[in-house]
Design brief:
By secondary structure, the protein is an alpha+beta fold. It has three domains: 2-59, Nuclear Transport Factor 2, Chain: A; 63-168, Nuclear Transport Factor 2, Chain: A (Roll), CATH 3.10.450; 180-293, Distorted Sandwich (Glucose Permease (Domain IIA)). The protein has helices at 6-11, 77-83, 88-98, 311-340; strands at 2-3, 21-25, 31-37, 42-49, 52-59, 63-72, 113-123, 126-140, 143-151, 157-160, 180-183, 203-206, 212-214, 219-226, 232-238, 242-247, 249-252, 261-262, 267-271, 281-288, 291-293. The strands form four sheets. Strands 11, 12, 14, 15, 16, 18, 20 and 21 form an eight-stranded antiparallel sheet that branches. Strands 1-5-4-3-2 form a five-stranded mixed sheet. The radius of gyration is 25 Å and the shape is globular. The protein binds zinc ion (ZN). The site of zinc ion (ZN) has 5 residues, from loops.
Length: 341
């Protein structure tokens, strides 16, 4: 009889080729222990107990080391990042952190600079990969943007300004990463299939079938199913006032169901052409107190700042990081001045 978590037990029935399973036998040749190394940091162990076998997952916590990298943009941020020793994933993290305040596709200029403090992960002295950015600064056309990572009591981490305001907005502007806007919010539109004036209360994004659709804000799935001309549709409720709708979907992400909580950016479904749609696209609606608003122009609310009760802890934890960022910017400036003379 095998005891323990049923998901873990199931996992043992799906072993990946190339992985090692170790068996420990007793004097009678019976199984005493089985160890499966799922990844460098995760091991599943089955051991004999008095009344059968017990299964457990063992995590090895990697050691974290803080590293610093800085650079100045000469042509592109990507090249400057590479030159500073940042991996692709760190450059992506950096642009994600400041995406709300800096338009990285259009407003990056030569002379813009960045400074990043990030974690490198090690296990038993061996390098595993890069971890998270813990503090970052981006100077965009002379304006200084700063971000400090802080983990809330529920275990989620966010980036905040030194004053404790979140950098991200409560909503993403678009639910798809790259897509062409094929129809805008328009209360007097002639419907392409019905050929009569019918308000278009959302924005259409033309994208291939299967393109991931992201939740634009933290919320809860309140509807997931078929709804007339919308075809396959998901409705998210965000707090009491806001709701968003995603229509003509190809399929839903089976990770979630009705009532599931989702985080901003989670993939909730995939673009399709279900319902009344002339081609594959996502129809996206944004409502405040039940009233449709233009998703492209509606002022987006700020995310929740650091709770007042945690502000002192936040400042205490982040002030050394902030000091490091500031002092290395001074050093970089001084170096530039010397070179300039
Ligand atoms: Zn539409």
């Amino acid at each position: 009889m095998l005891h323990g978590d049923k998901h873990l037990r199931k996992e043992l029935t799906r072993l990946y080729p190339g992985k090692t399973v170790k068996f420990l036998l007793n004097d009678q040749g019976g199984l005493e222990k089985l160890v499966y190394e799922r990844s460098r940091t995760e091991t599943i162990a089955v051991s004999r107990e008095e009344d059968g076998f017990d299964i457990e997952k063992v995590f090895k916590q990697p050691q974290k080391e803080l590293h610093q990298a800085s650079g100045t943009v000469e042509s592109t941020l990507y090249i400057a990042g590479k030159k500073a020793g940042l991996s692709d994933s760190l450059v992506m993290q950096l642009t994600d952190i400041f995406a709300w305040d800096i338009d990285f596709s259009r407003s990056i200029h030569p002379g813009d600079s960045f400074n990043v403090l990030y974690e490198k992960l090690y296990l038993d002295g061996e390098y595993l990969g890069d971890g998270a950015i813990v503090a970052a600064e981006f100077v965009n056309q002379g304006k200084i943007h700063q971000a400090l990572r802080f983990t809330l009591p529920d275990g989620t981490s966010e980036y905040y300004t030194p004053e404790g305001k979140t950098l991200r907005k409560a909503f993403l502007r678009m639910p798809v990463k790259s897509a062409r806007i094929s129809s805008r919010f328009n209360l007097h539109r002639r419907h392409p299939i019905l050929h009569r004036i019918r308000a278009h209360k959302g924005v259409d994004y033309a994208a291939p079938v299967g393109t991931p659709v992201h939740a634009t804000g933290d919320g809860k799935i309140v509807y997931r199913g078929w709804k007339g001309g919308y075809g396959r549709v998901i409705i998210l409720q965000h707090g009491r006032r806001y709701s968003t709708l995603y229509a003509h979907l190809h399929r839903f992400n089976s990770r979630f169901k009705i009532g599931s909580k989702v985080r901003q950016g989670d993939v909730i479904a995939y673009v399709g052409r279900s319902g009344l749609a002339s081609g594959p696209h996502l129809h996206y609606e944004f409502r405040i107190n039940g009233i449709h608003r233009d998703p492209l122009t509606v002022p987006l609310p700020e995310s929740t700042p650091i709770p007042k009760a945690l502000l002192a802890v936040f400042k205490q934890q982040t002030s050394p990081l902030l000091a490091t960022l500031e002092s290395s910017r001074q050093t970089a400036l001084a170096r530039q001045e010397i070179q300039g003379e």
